Amino acid sequence: MSPLDVALPLAGVLLGLAVGLTGWRMLRGPGIADRAVALDLLGLLAVGAAALVALGSGHLALLDVALGLGLVGFIGAVGVAAFIARAARPPEGRDG
Amino acid sequence: MVEWLAALLLISGSAIALIASIGVLRLPDAFLRMHAATKAGVVGSSLMLLGAGFAFGTPDAWLRIVAIVIFLLVTVPISSHALGRAAYLGGATMWSGTQINEMESVLPRPALNREGAAETAPGEVSSMSDFTQAVPQPRSRILLALAQGHESEAALEAGLRVVATPSAQVTILSLLCAPSLTQTGPVPLGGSYYAQRLVEKRLARAREQAGMLVQNVEAMVEAARLAAATRHEEGDALRLLLGAAAHHDVTILPRGAWFDQAQVLDEGMAETRARSLAVPGLLLTTPALSALREVHFLHEADESSGEALKRFLGLDLFANLPLAITVLDLPGAPAVLADAVALAAARGRRVRAGYPSLHPDHPAPLEAFIGGTLAVIPARSPSGRLAWRSLREMPHALLLA
Distance (Å, rounded) from C-alpha A49 to C-alpha A44? Predict the structure, then answer.
């Protein structure tokens, strides 16, 4: 029996727990910044999950999915950050 | 053997991811949660990816995995920096035990809320309270607004000498009024290229002048042995100034200040300007402002003046100088004066009634405010009668409360 047969489910359980805790923080907030941070971490966890699933199923293509998830997480986080920063500015608009 | 290594990497990676998520759940504010999420998150995911790489073992898989890991290492610091900046700008609550806020008075922030306990569950905060030490004492925060203009350096120096205490935290704010500099009039056919060049030239010259002024003032503040931070901002100078002043106890602005071509304080338009600059704690200085002997509060016998007096007493400025209070001659003025004097005396100030009372249509005697007397004026009085009438004519130093 390969050690991977044990490690893969165990890593999956740990990762599932991590996703659960992070998701709880994301739902609970309290501020938009807390939610954004939790969402950022969820993106990173999804990259790890994609790696696990790729290993479990043997499909290399799932690693490309991991790359895509990382990209989406990055752009999403920057987008949310821009949104928060803009919402914090006074409403008269921005200057040059 | 490689399989054992892969298994070890997978499990340690997922364990670190779990630790990161515990940190995100348990740490007391968004900034600390970010610390857990980004560092541990990247390491956890990267270790799991490396584990997958050892398990696959093919060059094809390694190529992708190395690409993903490098990608994560490059992007996560950027996104977390952006998130942290946004959280700060958005006024995310800070943990009550926060000791150092290096961005204070560097980045604007709607309300500096260090409580944090209001929005998080009590259990979470109390579990971190072992780390709590004494919260630093609030220091008086002074904003030095730099501007080109007649004798502005001397005026700033005089103002600083009068206001500063050894523990004061000084922010030097250099402002460039970009809209007025980049404005071009009607341009003849074919002239837009040169108009653009001229704008750039003007901006460059204004920046150079602002830089020189900053250098001089920094040297001056250093000579006074005060802690200082410097900011340079470009945009609508008046709006930037008001935004920055909201985060400071005292704002020092040379009277007759120019932000290059946009005059912020116009001697002839004092009343209109006063309304747009109605910031409590704004000290308009002149070079003549020197050894003060007395502070003179001009009370307009209305409610906003009463609040202004309270704000001024709350600022705790010039506590060792005698305070005189003069009330505008309106019905009920003696009672207002008695109340004001009693209030100031209750705060432990040496206080006296100023002139018996002033008629609303006659300016206050100007000679009283020359030299050793600093006039204090209610900033948000709806009428704005006495103060501006009396001080419009001559460029005196005055403090808005």
Answer: 9
pLDDT digits (tens, 9 = 90+) for B378-398: 776 655 555 555 555 555 677
B contact residues 197-256, partner A, Cβ 8 Å cutoff: 234-236, 239, 243
Asked if B118 has any chain A CB less than 8 Å from its own CB, the reply is no
CA distances from B148 to A15, B176, B209, B223, B254 (A): 60, 10, 8, 21, 9
Q: Please give the C-alpha separations between residue B356 and each of B224, B328, B335, in angstroms, as whole numbers.
A: 40, 9, 12
Enumerate the β-bridge partners of residue B283.
Answer: B252, B399
Is the pLDDT reported for residue A68 higher than 80? Answer: yes
Q: Which residues contact B131 (CB under 8 A, 6 or more apart)?
A: B97
B6–A7: do the CB atoms touch at under 8 Å?
yes
B31-49 residue pLDDT tens: 888 888 888 889 999 999 9
Q: Is B56 exposed, middle or buried (0-12, 13-18, 19+ CB in 10 A)?
A: buried
Q: How would you list the strands of the sheet with B169-177, edge to edge?
A: B227-235, B169-177, B141-146, B250-254, B282-285, B398-400, B373-377, B294-299, B323-327, B351-353
pLDDT by residue (tens digit) across A33-58?
888 889 889 999 999 999 999 988 88
C-alpha dihedral sign at B78, B79, B85, B86: positive
A68: exposed, middle or buried (Cβ count in 10 Å: 0-12, 13-18, 19+): middle
Instruction: Check if B179 contacts A (Cβ < 8 Å).
Output: yes
Closest CA to B163 of B73, B265, B260, B295: B295
Q: Has residue B67 got a pLDDT over 50?
A: yes
Q: Inter-chain contact A85–B89, Cβ cutoff 8 Å?
A: yes
